Amino acid sequence: MTKKSDEKPAPCLFGEAVCAPPAKKGGLLAFSYSKLSLYEECPLKYKFKYIDKIKEEPKFYFAFGSAIHAALEFMYAVKAPPFPTIEEVCEAFRREWGRKSYLEKGYRTQRKADDDFEKGLLMLKAYYEHNRARLAPPFLLEYSTDVEADGLLVRIIADKIEYQGEGRLLITDYKTGKDVKREPAQLYMYQKIAEMDPRLKEKIAEQYGERVSSVRIGQMLYYHVPTNKEYHFDRADDREIGAFWERVLGVADSIKGLKFEPTPGERQCAWCDYKSMCPAFIGGQLPPPPAAAATSNIEELVDRYGRLKERMDEIQAQLAEVAASIAGASKDGGEYSGSSYTASVKKGHKWEFRDREAVIKVLNQFDLYQKAMTLTLSGITGVLESEGIPEEARKRLLEQAVKKTSVDIRVTRK
Question: What is the distance in angstroms between the CA of the first residue and the CA of the last residue of the chain?
Fold first, then answer.
């Protein structure tokens, strides 16, 4: 799975510019479980989000989950009992909830946001009652760390870590979405990175006065807050972690190799914010699945494809050459006739952009990414020439633009 790719990078959205590689820190590829799962869902969506840095629309379920997490963090953030009362926990939830409007949180209506707020209060009260008898100060809350591993800089953020003695840890990850069967892959990532993290040994010594030679994950669990169900997983063995890590390295190699082909499907596309700029989502719907090709004469088909491709490339080059000659001879455009065909030649202007990364940065800075829609040349030109665009944004975009003559030639047979 870790074999290097020799495939060419996927084409960029701006003309023939070469795609920039993923951002790195200290020569390492920044990585996380969320990046792994998003790439596996759709490599092109990963590119839009993490490389092009195109903002997504806010999602109400993320806002809801963040507010619940903030309230639980408030509840457990004590060095020793007493713990906050349920009223204080609900007030912490209320404060976090009030930081953004319902639109900023991703809700379509105030009523739906209010319904979820009430649902969150009931959820926290049920959680508090269910866990009242076993509340204990945890070792760490919302623990974030970055660890170098095999050319990656991997980040984990563990919701809660409890110390079990002798270097053993219990990691809990809270879930607030649907109660679905969950695979332990995310917990494998926690185990792999936590056991490599030297800071944890230091923190154990600071907090418990215990010097340990290594950290070992004893247990991991998903806690489903809406139902108070716990899904326990014992420590994964070396075979399970090894297979998971091969999967991680395979995805990392694909990212480094700039493999960002879309993988359309109902599940992947249902909530995707990038449909309008995705080549696989044409006309507002997914293309039909390709018909299965016959494999009995694959060698013959390969040769035929190669010959057709060579002819097509040759014809495209000739078309471009003749079109350039017509453009030069037609001056301002017009109608022209040959012995067999009539051509309508229209001349205009188009913009080309030298630095796609600089253009994306300007669009994000001035919140113009939605107006651009497709981030193609026509999309950016529409933003550049639209009314109401801030003058500073227009100026910054023009600094990256080159205006060229465009020619549209349409022919009809006599």
Answer: 58
Please, are residues 371 and 382 in contact by the beta-carbon 8 Å criterion? yes
| Fold designation for 1-290 | Lambda Exonuclease; Chain A (3.90.320)
What three-state secondary structure class fits 255? helix
pTM of the predicted structure, to 2 decimals: 0.64
Tell me the domain boundaries of the chain.
Answer: 1-290, 297-325, 330-413
- pLDDT of 338-366, one tens digit each? 877 788 888 776 666 667 677 777 777 77
What is the tens place of the pLDDT at every residue in 175-223?
Answer: 999 988 888 999 999 999 999 999 999 999 999 999 999 999 999 999 9
User: Tokens 């999967």 sit at which residue?
Assistant: 247
**C-beta atoms surrounding 89 within 10 Å:** 21
- Strand pairing report for 168-175 and 140-149: unpaired
> Among 186, 154, 121, which residue's Cα sits nearest to residue 25?
154
Q: Which two tokens stand for residue 400?
A: 């990256």
- In angstroms, what CA-CA distances link 296 with 292, 300, 302? 12, 9, 12
Question: Cis before residue 82, ω within 30 degrees of 0?
Answer: yes
Strand partners, 370: none
Residue of 256, 246, 189 whose CA lies nearest to 51: 256
Q: Which amino acid is at 236?
A: A
